[in-house]
Design brief:
Elements: E1 7-12, H1 15-26, E2 29-34, E3 37-41, E4 48-53, E5 72-76, H2 80-89, E6 94-100, E7 105-111, E8 117-123
Parallel strand pairs: 1-4, 5-8
Antiparallel strand pairs: 2-3, 3-4, 6-7, 7-8
C-alpha cells in the first residue's frame, strides 16, 4: 500500500465559516464543495481537510449529531512569531497566546468558528535555535 495523501475529516456546525477560516488564515484552497461539504488542500506536506456539516447522512449514524470536539489540529511551522502576529492582525481568534514549553516546543492556538482548535508549533533546541 502506498498512501498518497493524508486527510482529516471534521464535523462542524457551519461548513462555510470553517472553510473561510482555513482559506483565509491558513492558506488552504477549496478543491470540491457541495451543500454541507467542503474539501480543502494546501499542498506540500500539510494534511488535507474535509469539512462535513453535522447531521450529514454520510456520517455514521452514531456520529451525525456530534461535532469536532477535543481535537487539536497541529501544524509544525517556521517563523512562529511572524505567524502569530499575522493571524492576530487578520483577526483570528487566538485562544492560547504564544508560549514556550520546557521541552522545546513553542506554540500558540487559534480556534475556528466551529470550535476546532488549531495549534501552530515550532520546535527549538535548548539554545533557542529552530529545529524545523
Amino acid at each position: 500500500m502506498q498512501i498518497t495523501v493524508s486527510t482529516v475529516s471534521l464535523t462542524v456546525d457551519d461548513v462555510t465559516a470553517s472553510q473561510q477560516f482555513f482559506t483565509t488564515h491558513l492558506g488552504y484552497k477549496e478543491i470540491a464543495a457541495a451543500e454541507g461539504f467542503a474539501s480543502l488542500t494546501r499542498g506540500g506536506s500539510a494534511v488535507d481537510i474535509v469539512l462535513l456539516r453535522r447531521g450529514t447522512e454520510i456520517l455514521p449514524a452514531g456520529q451525525r449529531d456530534q461535532h469536532a470536539a477535543g481535537i487539536i489540529l497541529a501544524f509544525t511551522v517556521t517563523g512562529i512569531e511572524e505567524e502569530e502576529r499575522r493571524l492576530r492582525e487578520q483577526g483570528a481568534d487566538i485562544t492560547m497566546p504564544l508560549r514556550q514549553e520546557p521541552w522545546g516546543e513553542r506554540l500558540f492556538q487559534i480556534t475556528d468558528p466551529s470550535g476546532i482548535v488549531v495549534q501552530l508549533v515550532e520546535w527549538v533546541t535548548p539554545g533557542g535555535a529552530s529545529v524545523n
